[in-house]
């Protein structure tokens, strides 16, 4: 068979996790071997993450120097380094569907994670780290938040966190706020007249996300301010839990379903009321746009939410193209170094953040299309933190070379991880916050 790439637009098959064959370990191993053989012959993705160097080292050190010389038990070493960024599928692999080889590396890794989780589970510390809604609610209780932040900022506290949860002592961990975004904006009402534009209906509901709600409430406030400044009636989603992405990365698909069953009815009801849905973290947007629809392709409410969910800057550019985005900027921003978050990049919406920020007079954007290496818990766990730092280093070098006044990433976790390597020269700012700064509101 000739190794010819595919020139058609990629398509994504549903995750057939309700089929018994999905969970069959023998069939899974056969599919892993098949895909690893294709990757071995291509190697285009070697620079993306540590999954591919791990695979190729296993092959190159095997007695046959082929996949058949790699022990099946070592396949797990590749799987553990895939954090489902999706970049290989969306930007590198020439063999994705509709190519006949039908390679979907991230979802194969997800299948392997799910099979392992179902058979062996994961350590308690991994379950705790991925239970972001529960941890956030407990840590944001008044007084408790101050205690947690103080402990996390101390050497003794970080040693305890390392021993208890395997969080690397040098990894950036978020602060917690008792005055959460949902508390700050609980009285926000979607007042005014909705003006449809492009795919947007003209009134918005913000999904705060479990991370921004308790750790970066100002970002949610900034998003609300930018939307209302542009005459978009805006409110908060009434109630929400984690989108499910941290559980997806564990392969805990039943917990993903539990999150979906709590979020989707609320979001679908808002969609039926004519609201567009936005979230300030790309991973959460991707979860509702892609992962849940692929897991639940026959759920009408999931598909409705998919249609109405937007990345904030995708949303604003829809308004701009219809002449409805305000450009009454009061402040220039100079040079911005913008790291393109992986889970935003793979939404196939184009560089909308850059396009919006470029509307600000006296502002230039240096675009950095490299992964931060953070990706959920991967960038904080003791076992993988050093690798995450290595992946981030080229991005940090690009930021330094840009000599920028501001550094930004749409993913707050990625931004903080990269800024940690900049030795205090720049701190990470969310692009929504920069936009509000430019508006002077």
What features would you describe in this structure?
This protein is globular. The chain contains 22 helices and 8 strands. The strands form 2 sheets. The protein has a 4-stranded parallel beta sheet, sandwiched between helices. A 4-stranded parallel beta sheet has the order 6-5-7-8. Helix content is 49%, strand content 7%. The chain has 4 domains: 20-120; 124-165, no CATH class; 181-318, no CATH class; 327-439, Rossmann fold. It is α/β, with parallel strands linked by helices and 441 residues long. It starts with 24 loop residues before the first helix and ends with a helix. Helix 21 links the parallel strand 7 (406-409) and strand 8.
What is the percent of helical residues? 40-55%
Number of strands: 8
**Shape field:** globular
* Structural class by SSE content: alpha/beta
Major sheet: size, sense and barrel closure? 4 strands, parallel
């Amino acid at each position: 068979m000739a190794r010819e790439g595919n020139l058609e637009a990629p398509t994504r098959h549903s995750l057939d996790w309700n089929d018994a064959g999905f969970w069959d370990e023998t069939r899974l191993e056969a599919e892993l071997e098949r895909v690893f053989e294709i990757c071995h012959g291509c190697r285009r993705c070697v620079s993306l993450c540590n999954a591919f160097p791990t695979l190729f080292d296993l092959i190159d050190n095997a007695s046959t120097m082929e996949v058949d010389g790699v022990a099946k038990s070592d396949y797990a070493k590749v799987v553990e380094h895939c954090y489902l960024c999706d970049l290989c599928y969306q930007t590198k692999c020439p063999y994705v569907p509709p190519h006949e080889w039908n390679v979907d590396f991230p979802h194969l890794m997800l299948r392997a994670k799910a099979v392992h989780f179902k058979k062996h589970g994961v350590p308690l510390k991994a379950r705790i780290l991925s239970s972001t809604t529960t941890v956030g609610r407990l840590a944001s209780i008044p007084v408790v938040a101050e205690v947690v932040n103080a402990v996390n900022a101390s050497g003794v506290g970080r040693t305890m966190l390392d021993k208890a949860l395997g969080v690397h002592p040098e990894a950036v961990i978020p602060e917690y706020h008792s005055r959460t975004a949902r508390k700050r904006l609980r009285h926000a009402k979607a007042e005014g007249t909705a003006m449809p534009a492009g795919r947007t209906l003209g009134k918005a509901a913000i999904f705060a996300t479990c991370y921004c709600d308790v750790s970066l409430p100002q970002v949610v406030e900034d998003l609300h301010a930018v939307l209302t400044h542009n005459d978009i009636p805006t409110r908060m989603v009434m109630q929400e839990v984690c989108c499910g992405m941290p559980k997806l990365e564990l392969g805990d698909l039943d917990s993903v379903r539990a999150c979906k069953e709590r979020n989707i009815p609320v979001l679908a009801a808002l969609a039926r009321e004519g609201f567009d849905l936005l979230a300030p973290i790309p991973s959460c947007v991707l979860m509702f746009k892609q992962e849940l629809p692929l897991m639940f392709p026959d759920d009408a409410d999931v598909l409705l939410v998919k249609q109405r969910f937007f990345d904030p800057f995708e949303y604003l550019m829809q308004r701009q193209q219809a002449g409805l985005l305000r450009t009454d900027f009061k402040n220039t921003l100079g040079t911005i170094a913008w790291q393109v978050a992986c889970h935003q990049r793979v939404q196939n919406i184009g560089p909308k953040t850059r396009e919006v920020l470029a509307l600000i007079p006296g502002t230039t954007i240096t675009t950095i299309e490299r992964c931060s290496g953070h990706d959920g818990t991967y960038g904080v766990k003791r076992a993988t933190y050093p690798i995450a730092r290595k992946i981030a280093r080229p991005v940090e070098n690009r930021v330094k070379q840009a000599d920028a006044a501001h550094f930004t990433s749409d993913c707050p976790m990625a931004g903080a991880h990269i800024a940690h390597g900049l030795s205090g020269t720049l701190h990470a700012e969310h692009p929504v916050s920069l936009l509000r700064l430019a508006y002077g509101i």
